Amino acid sequence: MAGERVQPATLSRSEAALVASEGKAPRTERGRKTLRAILDAAAIEFGEKGFHEGSISGITRRAGVALGSFYTYFDSKDAVFRALVRDMSDQVRDHVAPAIRAAPDQIAAERAGLSEFIAFVRGHKEIYRIIDEAEFVDPESFRLHYATTADRIAARLKAGAARGEIRADISDVHAWAIMGMNVFLGLRYGVWQDDVSPEAVADSIAEMLARGIGTK
Amino acid sequence: MAGERVQPATLSRSEAALVASEGKAPRTERGRKTLRAILDAAAIEFGEKGFHEGSISGITRRAGVALGSFYTYFDSKDAVFRALVRDMSDQVRDHVAPAIRAAPDQIAAERAGLSEFIAFVRGHKEIYRIIDEAEFVDPESFRLHYATTADRIAARLKAGAARGEIRADISDVHAWAIMGMNVFLGLRYGVWQDDVSPEAVADSIAEMLARGIGTK
Amino acid sequence: MAGERVQPATLSRSEAALVASEGKAPRTERGRKTLRAILDAAAIEFGEKGFHEGSISGITRRAGVALGSFYTYFDSKDAVFRALVRDMSDQVRDHVAPAIRAAPDQIAAERAGLSEFIAFVRGHKEIYRIIDEAEFVDPESFRLHYATTADRIAARLKAGAARGEIRADISDVHAWAIMGMNVFLGLRYGVWQDDVSPEAVADSIAEMLARGIGTK
Amino acid sequence: MAGERVQPATLSRSEAALVASEGKAPRTERGRKTLRAILDAAAIEFGEKGFHEGSISGITRRAGVALGSFYTYFDSKDAVFRALVRDMSDQVRDHVAPAIRAAPDQIAAERAGLSEFIAFVRGHKEIYRIIDEAEFVDPESFRLHYATTADRIAARLKAGAARGEIRADISDVHAWAIMGMNVFLGLRYGVWQDDVSPEAVADSIAEMLARGIGTK
DNA sequence: AATGAATGAGAATTCATTCAT
DNA sequence: GATGAATGAATTCTCATTCAT
Description:
Arc Repressor Mutant, subunit A; DNA-binding; Homeodomain-like_sf (chains A, B, C, D); transcription regulation (chains A, B, C, D); HTH-type_TetR-like_transc_reg (chains A, B, C, D); DNA-bd_HTH_TetR-type_CS (chains A, B, C, D); DNA-binding (chains A, B, C, D)
């Protein structure tokens, strides 16, 4: 988990925006690289040690830059963390979205979403430490992440209902339930153990959902 | 959330055991009261501020005892936290168990369990901060709590299946899914907002489960 | 070193005096035993851990009495330590004196003194930790111990000179030199290693002294 | 004693090595100065108050730097102390060595060594507090200091014996004896009182040694 | 932009000593 | 006399942040 590259080596548009929102966009190519190095290092540091145990000096050491350079790009420890949470949140969404869109119907979409999610998590185990710790470090990000995710699911279900693939009486409650299932299944079968394949897990759940909220 | 009594005013047997496991059981009545005060104060302090922002001096101030008295009963900040996690975990279980046992069938049991859980959480909002933060402070407790809870659910489902109330093909995956649903529904409808009643939430889910894993 | 009884099980006259000088002589038999237990425990505790690392609670735990009981017999941590230093100092003197007195001449006396000293130290290794630490804890005791010891040696040498066994030009300088030799030889061949017997060490030194300050 | 300069104002090679061994060598000139100031201040603080009574804040106050700066250069209170013991130990050796080397024969060398030692000690009275307290704070340094010193003396005596200036039957025992004499004579005539000149003390001892272990 | 030294507020922890029972 | 809980001053160590070079 620790060693893996968490993000591409250059800043994408949305990442630049994200960083800019914390106030300090790099102007030169050299600066861009330093920022990238710091961001990657922060994901590793916080993923390994958590926010409170992780340190700025740990980040800069990993990034191979001087301590002071950190403050060229971020205003505070909280700021990198916030940027990271948003970044991770976006990554999950971006990674899972295509499979969901490609699914033939809504139940299949949920199966694909869960399966992809678990698979993604296996390659990014730090994601739980980072997003969950936001509950304590930056509750706003935490709420935003889950509220947004639940909304997305609710919207999907609604659309599925409109298409007649999902029972009409589903609601936000179901969206939150599905999100909760996914999160814990990701923790259990993605982060903690991989004794069951993502597909097998997703199949079980999809079957339950098909009967539970599907229209047959 | 902060002001509520989290535990009874005397140490029950299991609480005594719990504390003793951290090493320093009181030998006099006076000591018993002080320990109780510290434990209650710790639940409030950590519930309000979280583990890292909470302080020993905050705990002893709330408990109305001297700073040093804390160390008469606990070896460290981590130690109270561990004791607290275990305590909260036990409380949830103890609170929810009777309703589950009293239910006529397995689906009704899950409904009752969720409903009670949300209701309990509304009166103990600090429970999320404490148990979830264990992921970072004392991962072992965290794992233990969720692994134990999932096992308990799995055992219930298995028993239900044996009685023919639950489909035979359910597995641990379903137990983790149900736990995840419950946790997030508790967060959304217990801690964050109470725009929907626990019963209504539980009804929706129970219906889905009845179709999804029930035998009709 | 730790387990050995450092003093007899009852208080001798001088010990009683010594303790009384710290202010709190026991009145009952029960009290006498408790005091004895505390004194023994203190020698072990300080011998093992040193003054600063040693603790009152460590002493009372070893003595098998309650923490508070310590203050029934001593006014402070310093007070036991002072009592102990004086006690150890007296013990060395009392142990070594007979052999010195019994020696046929002054050089033989020095040999006997050194030999006995090393032997004694082997059975009471804590003596160095306690007496030497007095330099930092209670400098007065430390000075007193060494000044007294040096004086005693000087007096012996003078008497020897008067009897014609020792050169007439010896002085305090020689007394301090002899004491220094003895102390370091005790440390090296008594406490640290016992690869050479006390007698062999004493023989070497006696020979040197015979030529160096003896009259042949 | 407290105010005297204990070490030169810049870091010598060996000092740099010594400090580096504790892990944090300065990289800039400014850093070098700060480290020097801390080291000097520590010698004064510990010399005056001893290790346990001395405090980090006392050191940084004397050094005129912020409390935290201490930790830029040392990992702990123990670490400075260790560095200091090693430093003092080296200083004594370096100070005394030239006089020993310049002496015409081995007995003269011992006289010169003792004389210089006492003189040095008069100007660095803190040396005893620091080296002796190592027995309790960092026994390894303590052992090392004395074992090394004794070895050095033994080697000198052996060389003297090879040249026929010293009797052939001298051994480690004599080396330890001589070291012990020197240490206590330094304490008595260097630190405690200066009623006898270093030369006079050294003359007395040299005469004793000439007869005792010399070949005439 | 980069560097790394300096800063100091903040918190956990220890333990001698007191005292009510 | 004995007990052990309570007290709180004192200290070490951490680390985010600032700033001079």
